């Protein structure tokens, strides 16, 4: 039976009322008396030496307050990278300077050269056009292979070359992996591209900087998934502002998908300039600017080899990947192709030998960083594609081949350094076969063929590591931050509750799901509980929302804080009822003494805490407010099985998704409706990557797909109705809620099933096509059919 | 955008006068022009809105059975009109509801985007483009990508479409913009078949004469078997090669014929 509240209930998303009625408050809704506007003059070439910037004519234009260039930021730090990678030779990664405004050189189309602060945005744009630039164009470094050739043009003159790092994982296993592949009965090799994407959240980025001369307080309002991370990075590494003088506010944020994790130059600029011009300074990104300044995602070129023995058991996986970093290292860029990718290369399989090599490369393109899934979609895609290819080469059923190689005993230590706590991959595959009606596929294919269409079925598994992350572990791996989270549960005198959380909600539904947990624990109504997030002056030091971590990490902190509340409330209740604390039971919002009919209500206890007339003041403090920090013991490992059916039009190459099914194991589920919504959205993005989206540069480093006229976002009519199921639940063993995280699964699990289905369809039509790189556009599919 | 003067004349005469100003630019529904202005890619001195001119509004059937559409008619109004079903269906597939509510037939034909839908209908139907100064046959009107026979300041006041016996417009969309990657309008008249192709050629909309001859002899998709257009001269870009577009011209023309028949 569906519950009407608490854990497991599909409570309707309370935040949607304000989003749907236009009463949400986004950063661009913030307008502060006296604010000025900044327009960034951005490079329209990919690579050039800056010989001169003449701002004199522009500075005299109407409305101009002040014009800034790179020289104004020489005294402050650069935009930092949050993760240091040590390469396979024990060497630290090459880490270039990343100035707030370009200095000496511009390194990608969109690189900000100057910033004009003016009374109005139009005046700022007018003045920016009057800035005279003397740029000496240099050859653009675009192709990663070419970037690594000896003597190639360098993106950063002060680095040795364009190689950020050459990472091997696990390096000690390389010899064993090479030997296993050499001795294998069959080796399937696949070269593929994981296409570069632009996140395109509905709300573009915005920053408003403020400075209060009275108390020296800086405030940055920004579109961020993690205000404390921004405060730490910008305060400590860029501008040198101590935390107590810096407040970062991320109000309603209209989607992030990873691209709003990172600390951006525009945030540092607005904070810096607000003090310099002594006025609030506002920047609102246009959609065109977003294409060339938001961090992009993916962009890996990979060769993967899968070795099998004569009985089709996987014996080894070996990969070589080139990962595009773009022109600078964005906040978590270095960790995505390494720790978030290499550690998942065992997938759901008991392959004993795995070796991953990743070369990260600087190019004259927009920086690349985490995008929904971040490294795990890249791992899943190559592994699940090569398994499908092996099944086709060997003439075996792709589901059976997977099942044969599943990990079935838990906990399981993979050869790539992580330990899966729980899972049941056969159960999710069973569920998938049921909801996808795999048995009925043959009949559906016949029906399609009768209409002249080719029909294909693609399936795949996925596993991801969420709930990032145990701080001591990631510290050893090079992270420059801890990855715990925090919550404060503030019970008010009359019993209502404000929960201040470090996680940020920008589409995830925390404001609904988090109260469900506290309501369940206390036995009170959800409506008595509100979540407060997104303001460093209101919330405890939490690390924010990404990597499907909010419930697993911040939710766990909230549980711990609520447990402290219950412990204290029981002490108060015991005092009120003159009973022993050990005998107090909490049920349905009432405290009772075991074995008696004595009870006090939740509200009686909370009132006593704040009006302590009859209160054990000698034993406990008044008030009822508790904070907990939670540092996870391990990652969580959501996993699942996905199926996609496509129809391919043999005349045009157009691929239509006919059916899509997802069976996920997220452990325990707090709000099934929200979880389904997250999976739906993730699949939409995965189908977008597989069929539609592609960020393309030409050889001169010009961004060809720089608007929605050329960058294909998924639309409703590109997508089918999905069958999603998350009834297979193996609860996480190491967090108090037994939850695993669901935000990224759809985007991780769906691309391989789509491409597997396209390849299946083409082969069914007699086309011997082994692989098509994403996105499988009509033109590309048609071209594959001609070859 | 840059600053400009704005005029909204109530009569065609006033509009023609306003268009005589230096760097004047006519504004139809603004579905191409406004984004261009916002990106600062154009800087007209004066925008002359054509949406307040009564004589450029309205859709009716003419004496010779042709559909007469005022130059300022929106795509939505053409989509809702009765009398030329294939044309209304085409209009109903342009852009999205917001675009159709603002964009106009005169604006589209004056802009002559090589991937726009209306040029295919005008050319295949043998339409007449009526301006403040003259009448231009569609065959003489389209002069290549974004190029037309219109003179500086000349305004499309009405478009007259002869109504074929049967007709159909088939569009295969460019996935991102959903303009036509290849769009084909097939119109069968008593005295022959006309086929116009948009989206495909570097020269903009064109008549596919080989297909016209074949279909005039036998109005069936099979009549197009083996007919090809030369890939040279087709558009090749992110969304499809020249060869792909050339291939699609045949495929989409066949589909248009099947749907029309």
CATH class of the largest domain in chain A: Alpha Beta
The major β-sheet of chain B equals: 5 strands, antiparallel
In the CATH hierarchy, the third-tier topology of the largest domain in chain B is known as Uridine Diphospho-n-acetylenolpyruvylglucosamine Reductase, domain 3
Query: How many discrete structural domains of chain A?
Result: 3
Low-confidence stretches of chain A: none
Mean pLDDT of chain A: 97
CATH A-level architecture of the largest domain in chain B:
2-Layer Sandwich
H/E order of the elements of chain B? Answer: EHEHEEEHHHHHEEHEEEEEHH
| CATH class category name of the largest domain in chain B | Alpha Beta
Class by SSE composition of chain B: alpha+beta
User: What is the CA-based Rg of chain A, rounded?
Assistant: 27 Å
Overall spatial form of chain B: globular
What is the count of β-strands of chain A? 28
- The strands making up the biggest β-sheet of chain B line up spatially as 4-5-8-6-7
Q: Count the helices of chain B. How many?
A: 10
Query: What is the end-to-end distance of chain B?
Result: 48 Å
Give a brief description:
Chain A is an alpha+beta fold and 787 residues long.
Key terms for this structure?
heterodimer; A: alpha+beta; Aldehyde Oxidoreductase, domain 3; Aldehyde Oxidoreductase, domain 4; five-stranded mixed beta sheet; 19 helices; 28 strands; 22% strand; B: 261 residues; alpha+beta; Uridine Diphospho-n-acetylenolpyruvylglucosamine Reductase, domain 3; Enolase-like, domain 1; 3 domains; five-stranded antiparallel beta sheet; 30% helix
Task: Describe this entry's structure for a reader.
The complex is a heterodimer of chains A (787) and B (261). Chain A is α+β, with helices and mostly antiparallel strands and 787 residues long. Chain A folds into three domains: 31-138 and 205-284, Aldehyde oxidase/xanthine dehydrogenase, a/b hammerhead (Aldehyde Oxidoreductase, domain 3, Alpha-Beta Complex), CATH 3.90.1170; 300-469 and 634-786, Aldehyde oxidase/xanthine dehydrogenase, molybdopterin binding domain (Aldehyde Oxidoreductase, domain 4, 2-Layer Sandwich); 484-630, Aldehyde oxidase/xanthine dehydrogenase, molybdopterin binding domain (Aldehyde Oxidoreductase, domain 4), CATH 3.30.365. In chain A, 28% of the residues lie in helices and 22% in strands. In chain A, the strands form seven sheets. In chain A, strands 3-5-1-12-9-10-11 form a seven-stranded mixed β-sheet. A five-stranded mixed β-sheet of chain A has the order 7-15-14-13-8, sandwiched between helices. In chain A, β16 (412-413) and β17 (419-420) form a beta hairpin. In chain A, α14 (510-522) runs parallel beside α15 (550-576) and α15 crosses α16 (602-610). The longest helix of chain A is centred in the last third of the chain and has 27 residues, at 550-576. Chain A is globular, with a radius of gyration of 27 Å. Chain A starts with 14 loop residues before the first helix and ends with a helix. With 261 residues, chain B is of the alpha+beta class. In chain B, 30% of the residues lie in helices and 22% in strands. Chain B has ten helices and twelve strands. Chain B has helices at 12-18, 33-38, 75-80, 85-91, 97-102, 105-111, 118-125, 138-141, 209-217, 242-260, and strands at 5-7, 24-27, 46-49, 59-61, 67-70, 128-131, 135-137, 156-161, 166-173, 180-189, 192-198, 206-207. Chain B has a five-stranded antiparallel β-sheet with strand order 4-5-8-6-7. A four-stranded antiparallel β-sheet of chain B has the order 9-10-11-12, sandwiched between helices. The longest helix of chain B has 19 residues, at 242-260. The mean pLDDT of chain B is 97. Chain A binds chain B through residues 122, 125, 129, 288, 651-654, 692, 694, 696, 704-705, 708-713, 777-779, 782-783, and chain B through 1, 39-40, 172, 175-177, 181, 238-241, 244, 247-248, 251.
């Amino acid at each position: 039976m569906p519950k009407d509240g608490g854990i497991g209930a599909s409570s309707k998303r309370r935040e949607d009322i304000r989003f749907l009625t236009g009463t949400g408050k986004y950063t661009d809704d913030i307008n502060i008396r006296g604010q000025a506007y900044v327009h960034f003059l951005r490079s329209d070439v990919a690579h050039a030496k800056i010989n001169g910037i003449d701002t004199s004519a522009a500075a005299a234009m109407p409305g101009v307050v002040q014009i800034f260039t790179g020289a104004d930021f020489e005294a402050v730090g650069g935009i930092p990278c949050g993760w240091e990678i040590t390469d396979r030779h024990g060497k630290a990664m090459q880490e270039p300077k990343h100035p707030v405004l370009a200095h000496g050189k511009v390194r990608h189309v969109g690189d900000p050269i100057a910033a004009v602060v003016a009374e109005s945005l139009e005046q700022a744009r007018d003045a920016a056009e009057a800035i005279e630039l003397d740029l000496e164009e240099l050859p653009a470094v675009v192709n990663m292979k070419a970037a690594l050739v000896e003597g190639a043009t360098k993106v950063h003159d002060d680095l040795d070359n364009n190689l950020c790092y050459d990472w091997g994982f696990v390096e000690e296993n390389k010899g064993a992996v090479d030997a296993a592949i050499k001795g294998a009965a069959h080796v399937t090799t696949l070269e593929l591209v994981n296409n570069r994407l632009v996140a395109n959240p509905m709300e573009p980025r915005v920053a408003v900087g403020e400075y209060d001369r009275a108390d020296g307080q800086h405030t940055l309002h920004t579109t961020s998934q993690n205000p404390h991370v921004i405060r730490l990075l910008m305060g400590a590494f860029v501008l040198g502002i101590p935390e107590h003088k810096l407040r970062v506010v991320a109000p309603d944020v209209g989607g992030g998908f990873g691209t709003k994790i990172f600390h951006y130059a525009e945030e540092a600029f607005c904070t810096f300039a607000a003090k310099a011009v002594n006025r609030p300074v506002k920047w609102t990104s246009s959609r065109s600017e977003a294409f060339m300044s938001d961090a992009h995602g993916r962009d890996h070129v990979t060769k993967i080899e899968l070795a099998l023995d004569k009985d089709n058991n996987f014996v080894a996986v070996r990969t070589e990947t080139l990962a595009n970093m773009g022109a600078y290292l964005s906040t978590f860029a270095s960790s995505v192709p390494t720790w978030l990718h290499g550690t998942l290369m065992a997938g759901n399989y008991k392959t004993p030998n795995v070796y991953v090599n990743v070369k990260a490369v600087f190019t004259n393109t927009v920086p690349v960083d985490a995008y929904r899934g971040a490294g795990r979609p890249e791992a899943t895609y190559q592994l699940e594609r090569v398994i499908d290819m092996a099944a086709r080469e060997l003439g075996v059923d792709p589901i059976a081949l997977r099942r044969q190689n599943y990990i079935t005993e838990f906990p399981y230590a993979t050869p790539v350094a992580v330990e899966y706590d729980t899972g049941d991959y056969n159960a999710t595959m069973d569920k998938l076969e049921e909801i996808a009606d795999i048995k009925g596929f043959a009949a559906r294919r016949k029906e399609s063929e009768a209409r002249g269409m080719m029909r294909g079925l693609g399936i795949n598994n996925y596993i991801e590591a969420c709930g990032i992350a145990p701080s001591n572990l990631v510290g050893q791996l090079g992270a420059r931050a801890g990855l715990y989270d925090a919550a404060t549960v503030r019970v008010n005198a009359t019993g209502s509750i404000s929960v201040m959380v470090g996680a940020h909600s920008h589409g995830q539904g925390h404001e609904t799901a988090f109260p469900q947990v506290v309501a369940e624990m206390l036995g009170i109504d959800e409506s008595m509980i509100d979540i407060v997030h997104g303001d460093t002056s209101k919330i405890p030091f939490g690390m924010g929302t990404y990597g499907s971590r909010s419930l697993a990490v911040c939710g766990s902190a909230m549980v711990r804080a609520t447990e402290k509340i219950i412990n204290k409330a029981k002490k108060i209740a015991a005092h009120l009822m003159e009973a022993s604390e050990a005998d107090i039971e909490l049920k349905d919002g009432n405290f009772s003494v075991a074995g008696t009919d004595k009870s006090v209500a939740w509200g009686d206890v909370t009132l006593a805490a704040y009006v302590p007339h009859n209160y054990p003041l000698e034993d406990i403090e008044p008030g009822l407010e508790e904070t907990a920090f939670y540092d996870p013991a391990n990652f969580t490992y959501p996993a699942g099985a996905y199926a996609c059916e496509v129809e391919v039009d043999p005349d045009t190459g157009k691929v239509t998704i006919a059916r899509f099914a997802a069976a996920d194991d997220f452990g325990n589920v707090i709000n099934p409706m929200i979880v389904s919504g997250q999976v739906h959205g993730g699949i939409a993005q995965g189908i977008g990557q597989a069929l539609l989206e592609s960020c393309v540069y030409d050889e001169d480093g010009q961004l060809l797909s720089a608007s929605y006229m050329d960058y294909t976002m998924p639309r409703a009519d590109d997508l089918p109705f999905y069958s999603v199921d998350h009834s297979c639940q193996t609860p996480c063993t190491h967090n108090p809620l037994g939850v695993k995280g669901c935000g990224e699964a759809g985007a991780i699990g769906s691309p391989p099933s789509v491409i597997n289905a396209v390849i299946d369809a083409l082969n069914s039509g007699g086309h011997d096509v082994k692989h098509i790189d994403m996105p499988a556009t009509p033109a590309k599919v048609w071209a594959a059919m001609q070859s | 955008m840059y600053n400009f003067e704005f005029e909204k004349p109530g009569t065609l005469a006033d509009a023609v006068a306003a268009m005589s100003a230096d760097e004047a630019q006519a504004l139809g529904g603004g579905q191409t022009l406004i984004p261009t202005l916002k990106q600062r890619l154009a800087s007209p001195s004066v925008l002359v809105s054509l949406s307040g001119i009564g004589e450029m509004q309205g859709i009716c059937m003419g004496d010779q059975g042709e559909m007469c559409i005022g130059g300022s008619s929106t795509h939505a109004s053409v989509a809702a009109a009765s009398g030329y079903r294939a044309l209304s269906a085409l209009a109903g597939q342009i852009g999205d509801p917001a675009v159709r509510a603002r964009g106009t037939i005169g604006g589209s034909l004056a802009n002559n985007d090589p991937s726009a839908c209306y040029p295919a209908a005008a050319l295949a139907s043998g339409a007449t483009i009526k301006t403040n100064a003259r009448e231009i046959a569609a065959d003489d009107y389209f002069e290549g990508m974004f190029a037309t026979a219109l003179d500086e300041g000349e305004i499309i006041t009405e478009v007259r479409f002869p109504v074929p016996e049967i007709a159909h417009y088939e569009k295969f969309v460019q996935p991102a913009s959903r303009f036509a990657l290849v769009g084909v309008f097939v119109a069968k008249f008593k005295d022959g078949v006309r086929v116009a192709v948009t989206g495909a050629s570097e020269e903009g909309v064109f008549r596919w004469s080989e297909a016209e001859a074949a279909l005039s002899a036998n109005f069936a998709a099979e009549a197009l078997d083996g007919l090809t257009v030369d890939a040279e001269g087709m558009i090749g870009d992110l969304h499809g090669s020249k060869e792909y577009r050339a291939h699609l011209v045949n495929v989409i023309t066949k589909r248009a014929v099947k749907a029309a028949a």
